[in-house]
Amino acid sequence: MPVIVKNRFLLLYGSQTGQAKAIAEEIADRCVEQGLHADVICLSQTEKKFNIERESSAVFILSTTGEGDPPDTAAKFVRRLKKKTLPDGYLSQLNFTILGLGDTNYTNFCNCPKGLNQRLLELGAHHFYPPGWADDAVGLEVVVEPWIDNLWEPLKKHQMNGFGGETTVTIDKTNISESIMDSGSDTSVIKPVELNTNMNSNGNVIVEIDNSDIGVNQTVTVASLTESIPPLSTIGLNLPTLPPPYIHLQYNTDNILFPSAASEIKSVPITSATVLTSPDAVKKTLKLSIGIQDSKITYEPGDSISVICPNSTEEVDSILKRLDISDEADCEVNLSIIPETTKRKPTIPLYIPESCTLRYIFTTCIDIREPPKKALLRAFVEYTDNPTEKRRLQELCSKQGASDYAQFIREKNLSILDILTAFQSCHPAVSSLIEHTSRLKPRPYSACSAPCINKNSLSFVFNVIEIPEGEGRCCGRQGVCTGWLDKLTESIQRSYNKQSLETELESLSLSSSIQIPIYCRNNQHFRPPTDLSRRVVFIGPGTGVAPFIGFLAHRQHQRQLVDKDTTYGDTWLFYGCRHPNKDFLFEEELERYKETGVLTKLCVSVSRDPDVLDKPKYVQDYILQEINSIYDILIDDTSLIYVCGDAKNMAKNVNEVFMKILKIKKGMTDDEAKAFIMTMRLHKRYFEDVWT
Fold it and tell me: According to the UniProt record, what class of enzyme is this (predicted)?
């Protein structure tokens, strides 16, 4: 019996990596069972598919990028609302809520969604439900899941009060019922366990389970990935609704394709590969140079490139084998939408070609390394035969198992292969993996060169990430991109300044056949100053020094173009390494810049050299040691500070040591010091290019 749904609201998202879009789509899917209808629209479609000033109900899902900036898809919408010419009460008819996505490892946590929230209120809009600010540092799901669960009651109350718009959508009630029933656990699959399922008001499945036949290991006292302990192992669980399948996968066994035949990506040659660290260093660091003369790529110091990398061949082979599809891996497959799916507005991901192979999909399209989302674990439940394993997967995707999911999957960075290795009775459909995995994203690397020196070449530097076996990881592995680049350039790698000219020329000739796909990423917020008279402090331990090598080359070039009498501001660099003889990156270049006066002071911290006890161990320690000079720089309105590197620890520690200096030298309170640093950021005197 069809049912007509008239309660309509606008569900707007702004997404940089797809996370906000995925959450918006999840909310839209759950609207059906709540008797609501959401028009899901990207914020980039403002004035095309919606006009916010004409809307009465809206839910915003918005991420943050860069220095608290809006994602590219939301930039136009945010700019439009910032116009000072908009009248008071411009959005007085709008009732809204907003879910912001951010990361507290970065200074401006949820800056964009918080700013939008404030601006909407200034323009007269009203909250019908409190905003939520989700933190990726602890797991977005910690805030996202309860925020969505508690959204429905105020949203329906708001709609019932006559604020909702009307649209006519025909919903097949039978399909809804079937979808709800399917989202529970299938007792025929996990016999002899008795399961009773029902739904609460939030649309979540409640699973009550009789554990008497599961064979729970009573000797387990510590929870792990595959085993739980009371109370979690003995209580009823709130499971998320099973997402309806929507992709049909068809093999065309008569047509075999080369895995790489489905893309036309412009590539650039690697012209050199240099190992910057000694063989006994804790981490291997590589500097790659690429030829960009034929690519029409232009860049400035501070910019980065994004490398479009594949998944590991070994990892892809392992997951294809685990899924028992190795024989079909190189057959052409076609993906289509299941006609009878109950998923709202299903689409095949645009990043998967219409005609390709499974090997191509798993190698270049989907991210098989990222920790599986709860929606995928929920799908895995339906494909798991062993009752104990089935129960544990239910726990890991349930509301009650949120801490176990965070501890054993997200924090350990487990992959899909790790989960499938741990739960051997799980045999999922390939289509379910494609439905619930994200796009394999390019990896960004800061340029460590300057185009004023050589516009036809760009260099970047990175550590080859090594991830050991254990803690749920079924095998050791390298970083997806860094491991690939390391293997790709193995034949042309040379040691830093320890190679004959003949060998170097031979490497250069070999390198021309090695190509990588890239694109340039402009960073307008991280540029060297054009005014040479301004004092500058660079802070970049480890590979964080990379952009400053380009900055210093740029400043050296600037000095050569001006009069000798031109004032040149002091230029400091705080750099850190573990051992000066093992991983001091760009040592010769930095010493040369110091000798020529381009670099006024080079401050090197050493953290793991037992023979060096009198030097500061970390950059923040060295900054504090130079307290008087650094204080003078902080209070000089013309000076600039640049920080590059790890956001989780280093950038926070540097921020805190600056606050400490202000409190010691100027007698500021903690709040006053924090406000002083924030003012420096607002006045474009404090810049960060950091990552987690």
Answer: oxidoreductase
Contact by Cβ (8 Å): 504, 325 = no
Across the chain, how many H-helices and E-strands are there? 21, 28
Residue 365 tokens read as 């399209």
Question: 391 is written with which tokens?
Answer: 């129960």
Comparing CA positions, the residue from 353, 375, 351 lying closest to residue 140 is 375
Which helix (H) or strand (E) covers residue 240, if one does? none
What is the distance between the alpha carbons of residues 63 and 666, in angstroms, rounded to a whole number? 37
Q: Is the dihedral of CA 533, 539, 542, 544 positive or negative?
A: negative
Please name the residue that has the structure tokens 């500058």: 536
Structure tokens at 205: 């499945």
Provide the 3-class DSSP secondary structure of residue 314: helix
- Residues ≥6 apart with Cβ < 8 Å to 682: none
Contact present, 685 and 640 (Cβ < 8 Å): yes
Asked if residues 207 and 175 have their Cβ atoms less than 8 Å apart, the reply is no
For all residues of the chain together, what is the average pLDDT? 86
* Residue 91 structure tokens: 């959005």
In the chain, where the domains are located: 2-171, 184-243+372-412, 267-309+441-521, 536-691
DSSP H or E segment with residue 315:
helix 313-322
What are the residues whose beta carbons fall under 8 Å from the beta carbon of 144, sequence distance 6 or more? 23, 99, 132, 134
pLDDT score recorded for residue 474: 97
Structure-block tokens of residue 161 = 């009060």
Q: Is the pLDDT reported for residue 132 higher than 80?
A: yes
Which two three-digit tokens encode residue 413?
Answer: 């960075």
Give the rounded distance of the alpha carbon of 178 from its chain centre. Answer: 35
Q: Are 387 and 288 in contact (CB under 8 A)?
A: no
pLDDT band with cut points at 50, 70 and 90 for residue 287: very high
Q: Which range scores top for mean pLDDT: 110-119, 209-218, 262-271?
A: 110-119
Pairing of strands 601-606, 571-577: parallel
Residue pair 286/479 in contact (Cβ under 8 Å)? The answer is no
HSE-up of 515 (CA within 13 Å, CB side)? 9
- Rounded to an integer, what distance in angstroms lies between the CA atom of residue 302 and that of residue 554? 11
What is the share, in percent, of the chain residues with pLDDT greater than 70?
86
Q: How far apart are CA 162 and CA 153, in angstroms?
A: 15
The answer to whether 479 touches 465, Cβ cutoff 8 Å, is yes
Q: What CATH number is given for 536-691 in this structure? A: 3.40.50.80
Question: Tokens in use for 617?
Answer: 């161990």
Among residues 19, 120, 119, which one has the least CA distance to residue 63? 19
Q: Residues with Cβ < 8 Å from 76, sequence gap 6 or more? A: 43, 44, 46
- Lookup result for tokens 């709202």: 344
What is the layout of strands, in order, in the sheet containing 194-199? 194-199, 205-210, 237-239
Write down the residue that tokens 């400091």 correspond to.
572
Whether 254 shows a pLDDT value over 80: the answer reads: no
Domain 2-171 and domain 536-691, same fold? Reply is yes
CA distance linking residue 160 with residue 570, whole number of Å: 65
**Taken in order 176, 180, 186, 192, is the CA torsion positive or negative?**
negative
Which CATH superfamily is 2-171 part of?
Flavodoxin domain (3.40.50.360)
> CATH 2.40.30.10: does it fit domain 267-309+441-521?
yes
